[in-house]
Amino acid sequence: MKTLLKFLLLPFLFLLALFACKKEQPEILNAEDPCDCASEVSADFEIREALNNGAPSINMYTVTDDILAYKTAYFKAKEADAEYTWYIGADIETDRETAKFFPGQWAGSVIPITLVVEKEPNTICFPNDDGYDSITKYMGVHSFCDSSIMEGTFRVAEENSIDSFDIVFDLELAYAAPGVLSNSNCSRLDFYNYDRNGSNCVGYDNVMARNYRAFRSGIFSNWGGASHECGDLLIKKCYLDLNNQLFLSYEYWHVNDPEAIELNVNGRKLN
């Protein structure tokens, strides 16, 4: 009887072992390399320019390389928890973030901005890192009427759309009083083909809050006279990034339109 039981159990044990070998075994993951996310001490920094010189809570800041005169530039080191020394013109600062206002006499200047960073290095991952780095970037300060980077023809399209259209921006002197143009405030925008059907907003006081790489609708007045072409145009944000890619969000109303038409487009400058 015992011999019979052995013969009956042998096939069962064989099948059990066979299927057990075919079971998926848990994958053994390699331990993460602690140096994968590590980096050497860096003095790289970012320059931002405010759209207005007003309260930070209502302001818009754009990453830039150059700025307009009469604007504040903000400098921030990318490395955290270090010792910092900034050299901005004749000024020396020691915080991670600092800012400087550039009045009109700086227009036409190219200013070296130097940051020196010292920090305890990660010598396990980077045995040759001495914990010291410095970098100098050159920031141009432009006249407020130097608006060439934001003027010209741009080819844009809505996200996920293959239907593009061309728009044209032209920034001109704004009105200082009814019928009287300013001699230095180039913030009045002419906007061509804003509705994709050839409508133009030209020659009225469509004043923009602006900096070197961005603008948005600011104060409105009728000092330039009425313009029925402008269709109650509101520019929420227009920004040309450091790769010269344009991001534009705006809306407009035409007479008898039931509601505003809103467009969010991306594009590039043609000329």
Walk me through this protein's architecture:
The protein has one helix at 2-22; strands at 45-50, 61-63, 67-68, 71-77, 83-88, 91-93, 97-102, 110-118, 132-142, 152-158, 165-172, 175-177, 180-181, 188-192, 200-201, 206-210, 214-220, 234-240, 245-252, 261-269. It is mainly beta. The protein has two domains: 45-142, Immunoglobulin-like (Sandwich), CATH 2.60.40.10; 148-269, Lipocalin (Beta Barrel), CATH 2.40.128. The strands form four sheets. The chain has a nine-stranded antiparallel β-sheet, with no helix packed on it. Strands 3-9-8-5-6 form a five-stranded mixed β-sheet, with no helix packed on it. A four-stranded antiparallel β-sheet has the order 2-1-4-7, with no helix packed on it. Strand 5 (83-88) and strand 6 form a beta hairpin. It is globular.
What's this model, at a glance?
Keywords: Signal. The chain has 271 residues and is mainly β. The protein has one helix at residues 2-22, and strands at residues 45-50, 61-63, 67-68, 71-77, 83-88, 91-93, 97-102, 110-118, 132-142, 152-158, 165-172, 175-177, 180-181, 188-192, 200-201, 206-210, 214-220, 234-240, 245-252, 261-269.
Keywords:
271 residues; mainly beta; Immunoglobulin-like; 2 domains; nine-stranded antiparallel beta sheet; disordered N terminus; signal
Order of neighbouring strands in the sheet with most strands: 15-14-11-10-20-19-18-17-16
Low-confidence stretches: 1-10, 12-23
SSE order, one letter for each helix or strand: HEEEEEEEEEEEEEEEEEEEE
Q: Give the termini separation.
A: 98 Å
CATH fold name of the largest domain: Lipocalin
Tally of alpha and pi helices: 1
Radius of gyration: 30 Å
Count of DSSP strands: 20
**Which architecture of the largest domain would the CATH scheme give at its second level?**
Beta Barrel
Percentage of residues assigned to helices: under 10%
Q: How many domain units?
A: 2
Largest sheet: 9 strands, antiparallel
Q: Which secondary-structure class do the elements indicate?
A: mainly beta
Shape: globular
- Beta-strand residue fraction: 35-45%
Average pLDDT number:
84
CATH class of the largest domain: Mainly Beta
Keywords: Signal
Signal peptide: 1-22
